[in-house]
Amino acid sequence: MKHSIIAAIFGGACLAVFSGCSTQTSSTTNIPAPADRKPAQPVEVAKPVSDEPKVILPPSPGISQRPAVREFIAEMSRKHGFSSAELTRAFDEAGTVPAILDAMAKPYEAKPWHAYRKLFLTEKRINGGRDFMATHAAALAQAKSRYGVAPEMVTAIIGIESAYGFKPGKYRVIDSLSTLAFDYPRRSSFFRSELEQFLLLCREEGMDYLQPLGSYAGAMGMPQFMPSSYRKLAADGDGDGKRDIWSNAADAIASVANYFARNGWHSGEPIAVPARISGDGYREVVSTKNPKATQTLGELAHLGVTPAESVSGGHKAGLVQLAGETGPEYWVTFHNFSTIMRYNHSPLYAMAATELVREWTGAGHR
């Protein structure tokens, strides 16, 4: 998908951007472990069903002689000491994937809320999250103790990003990032930077440039971290000295929790609750894109906005408007909602994560 996840790329592709103990898994067998690492044994919480190829390869590899790629190789050699011959060999095997450019033109977050919600608030996703939390309870508990982020929040992110590890992406990361760095002018500088970060992390982690798989936007593993987020925020959850977010659930869990902690998550505070609206005063503060938690609940009440559920504490709040199936849908949002939006810049994404948490807890307080 997309934060990094975190990774929000624009209007919503993954950022991530993105545990606890010796529990080693919940992975997909479609994704190879990084080079020179022994894959963890998978614990299945759901069975993926797909007729699509396990890996989507470029139709015509071999981009090393393109002027922009040669310039990039020279820059990596000059700036970071990479072997030009080594990178040339890697880009001889890399290529442009047209399907990636098509996907960038129609991100999930372009959908209205009522359609987006149906993608993630499914019985399978909800029950899969319960199974994930039961399977990895110790790792999630340790992450909560270390980072102050509740199991439900971490699980919601991994559930949205990769269906609990079963859909972490079928594109080679080098192909995704090369396609977008050299054939997607609108965001070429961003993806060129991420390609630089990817080559650096491969060198640091001892991974083959051609091996890691991810999303069409280059986001990787269970939490769908972009390479820059991986280098800064990926965490070793089980103390084995590695940060394997592809096939080690403990590392993926710790990485998501670390991302949230480093981006200002407030443990125990609310995320969002349904709002009651009266009059027209709410128009002064309502947002459809980026609600800001800058008003007291008293100030919102003066504008005709009140939480439809009890909220304790003097938290600052904002108001988001979403396109519901029968008309506008309003939610009072708090600081932690904004933190989720740092993982992915879309309020639809943040609301989907919030709703999953509420399914598992019965409240917006985690």
What does the model show?
With 366 residues, the protein is α+β, with helices and mostly antiparallel strands. It has a domain at 1-60 and 95-265. The chain is built from 14 helices and seven strands. It has helices at residues 67-80, 84-93, 98-104, 113-120, 123-135, 137-147, 151-162, 173-183, 188-205, 227-233, 249-262, 297-302, 335-343, 347-361, and strands at 171-172, 213-214, 272-277, 286-287, 305-307, 318-323, 328-333. The strands form two sheets. It has a five-stranded mixed sheet with strand order 4-6-7-3-5. A hairpin with a 4-residue loop joins strand 6 and strand 7. Helix 13 packs across helix 14.
Order of helices and strands: HHHHHHHEHHEHHEEHEEEHH
Largest sheet: 5 strands, mixed
Helical content stands at 40-55%
Total helical elements:
14
| Total beta-strand segments | 7
- What form results from the Cα inertia axes? globular
Structural class: alpha+beta
C-alpha termini separation: 24 Å
Low-confidence stretches: 1-50
Write down the Rg: 21 Å
Strand order of the largest sheet: 4-6-7-3-5
Which band does the percent of strand residues land in? Answer: 5-15%
Average pLDDT across residues?
87
